[in-house]
Design a protein that fits this description.
mainly alpha; 2 strands; 300 residues; 1% strand
């Protein structure tokens, strides 16, 4: 008598159809082996009708455990947007994001700049939730490498909606979330060592502005004083430059007047010389013409 080996007992080769031999990841695969039976076919058709998107009753063929790609695409195209009636700019951006990157129509991949735009659009706590979902997609679906300033932009978005605790959590789990670069100022700010996380290179103010009002007032007063000194220096330089320019203009006018006078003198001398040459030429012609006339008279 032949004994079934442990390999045969553990194998599903004879427990399910051959077309399921290399099937991977099918949940509850046994229901697809009896799908042609009346009760199971009725259940399957009800399930397909509940899913929707079809204009006639539909049941999967016996040799397919998953939905066909064309049906998935059709249902994805027919489904309503999960976010209906977008109110804020962030919600509109989320719909645009799903259309560009997360649908069958989209062929692009998001970049780190797209994620930074999402964080810049955060205006309320719900917007921050949407931005974190997009961060999750960039990190786990598209494997986008975050930038060196991504954590600072995320911190600004959290502080804008008064959720500093989210930034603190992100600091604790920076490696898991993909924030590979956290500046020392941001780290000290979140740990309470200092009251600012960034100093603007444009106006030299410390951010956030509410917590650094006194420091920024001192910077503003110092900047105003230095601006006054600089304006005085600039005014003095402008006055010197104006005086220099006036003197140069006067000298240029005098030089031009002298040049015009010299030109007039030279023109007068040239005119006199020309008139003298013409007078000499006329005298020669007159003398020559008179001699010829007398000679002809005597010959005659």
């Amino acid at each position: 008598m032949l004994c079934a080996s442990q390999v045969l007992l553990a194998s599903l080769r004879y427990r399910r159809p051959y077309w399921m031999l290399f099937l991977k990841g099918a949940d509850n695969w046994k229901i697809y082996t009896v799908i042609q039976q009346p009760d199971h076919q009725r259940t399957e058709m009800l399930y397909q009708a509940w899913l929707g998107g079809l204009d006639r009753p539909y049941v999967r063929p016996k040799c397919m455990a998953h939905q066909p790609v064309w049906l998935s695409k059709k249902r994805h195209a027919l489904q309503k947007a999960r976010l209906e009636g977008p109110e804020t700019s962030m919600e509109k951006y989320v719909l645009e994001w799903y259309k560009r990157f997360h649908s069958f129509e989209g062929t692009e991949r998001p970049t780190i700049e797209d994620l930074h735009i999402a964080f810049d659009l955060v205006e309320r706590p719900l917007d921050l939730s949407y931005a974190c979902q997009l961060l999750n997609q960039c990190r786990n679906h598209y494997y986008v490498r975050l930038g060196d300033d991504s954590f600072e932009i995320f911190l600004e978005a959290c502080l804008r909606v008064d959720r500093k605790d989210c930034a603190s959590y992100a600091l604790e789990h920076a490696d898991a979330l993909g924030f590979w670069n956290v500046s020392d100022n941001c780290r000290r700010y979140l740990t309470g060592e200092q009251t600012w996380y960034r100093r603007s290179p444009v106006d030299l103010l410390y951010y956030p502005l509410e917590e650094n009002a006194e420091r920024n007032a001192a910077v503003t007063s110092g900047a105003a004083a230095s601006a006054t000194i600089a304006s005085d220096k600039v005014g003095a330089q402008e006055r010197v430059a104006e005086a220099t320019q006036t003197g140069a203009t006067t000298l240029a006018a005098e030089a031009s007047a002298e040049a015009e006078a010299e030109g007039d003198v030279e023109a007068t001398d040239d005119e006199i010389a020309r008139l003298q040459a013409e007078l000499e030429a006329l005298e020669e012609e007159m003398s020559t013409g008179g001699g010829e006339g007398n000679g002809g008279k005597y010959r005659r």
